[in-house]
Automatic annotation (TrEMBL):
Belongs to the UppP family. One of its GO terms (cellular component) is plasma membrane. InterPro entries: UppP. One of its GO terms (biological process) is regulation of cell shape. It holds the Pfam family BacA. This is Undecaprenyl-diphosphatase. GO terms for molecular function: undecaprenyl-diphosphatase activity. PANTHER family: UNDECAPRENYL-DIPHOSPHATASE.
């Protein structure tokens, strides 16, 4: 691969790092930018790359939110009081409670269990439809349509939410039902152009989450979701990579990681003072532009 090809890989990493966390669809942007740049790799590798590159972005969440995500501690750092409302001394329950008090942040364990519940709808809906979606929806026009549809939804949701006080402002206030509902919203993002972060943020706001919490929960939920999606894509592609393909993946993920750090910090700072309408308008304008370029024959369908 020549220097231009490696420049294209860096550009795709930058696009992933920015769009994975802003609610504007990372997969949709990678498909559109990939059509314009034409990276010199096979179609099968490109489909896998568009998903697996997201592992770099996921690592940014792990680094930035490690203290909120890591559910273990040592006996030296264990809290003085039991984390259980009704401590038990004897039997298996007592042994478990002592182990949990010594080594586990139970609030974070519960958070991860709720995140697991949020993953279930996407797993049940996404797996059976994965091949069909790759064949029919990983195209320019469907991506553009979904950009516009969810752009409009962002505007409608923000108008609906104007002046309303959120009922959920902390992770601990998320119920099991809330987690499942957010999971169904995330499942909508199996269609390219939707935006996984966009769908879950919309869902979170609609059920009463604050914007900040909806964004943070979206970040946390991305970790198991994208690890699972990447594993599936890698298995489907096969683990027979050329040296060039390995290099393309690594460079793309490293760039995506670095840019994601900045994108996450920007988004969390931005939503403390603004709503999501700007992203809705961006999606609508971009979707309309893409459809126009397709109609003019500049982009393929």
């Amino acid at each position: 691969m020549g220097l231009i090809e490696w420049f294209k890989v860096v550009v795709l990493g930058i696009v992933e790092g920015i769009t994975e966390w802003l609610p504007i669809s990372s997969t949709g942007h990678l498909i559109l930018v990939g059509d314009l740049l034409k990276l010199n790799v096979s179609d099968a590798f490109m489909e896998m790359f568009n998903v697996v590159i997201q592992l770099g972005a996921i690592m940014a969440v792990v680094v930035l939110y490690f203290s909120q995500l890591w559910p273990f501690h040592t006996m030296k750092t264990a809290p003085a009081r039991s984390c259980f409302a009704h401590p038990v001394e004897d039997g298996a329950a007592g042994k478990f409670q002592r182990f949990a008090n010594h080594y586990l942040h139970m609030d974070k364990i519960v958070m991860w269990l709720k995140i697991a519940v949020s993953c279930i709808p996407g797993l049940l809906i996404g797996l059976p439809l994965d091949d069909w979606l790759e064949e029919h929806m990983h195209r320019t026009v469907p991506v553009a349509v979904m950009l516009i549809v969810y752009g409009v939804l962002f505007l409608l949701v923000e108008n609906h939410n104007r002046g309303r006080k959120p009922r959920i402002s902390r992770i601990s206030q998320i119920t099991w039902k809330d987690a499942l509902i957010i999971g169904f919203f995330q499942a909508l993002a199996i269609v390219p152009g939707t935006s996984r972060s966009g769908a879950t943020i919309i869902g979170g706001i609609l059920i009463g989450m604050s914007r900040t919490l909806a964004a943070e929960y979206t970040f946390y939920l991305a970790v198991p979701t994208m690890l699972g999606a990447s594993a599936i894509k890698l298995l489907k592609f096969g683990l027979h990579f050329t040296g060039v393909e390995v290099s393309v993946l690594i460079i793309g993920m490293v760039v995506a990681f670095a840019v994601s750090i900045l994108a996450i910090k920007f988004l969390m700072s931005y939503i403390k003072r603004h709503d999501f309408k700007v992203f809705g308008w961006y999606r609508i304008v971009l979707g309309a532009l893409v459809i126009g370029l397709f109609a003019a024959g500049i982009l393929k369908g």
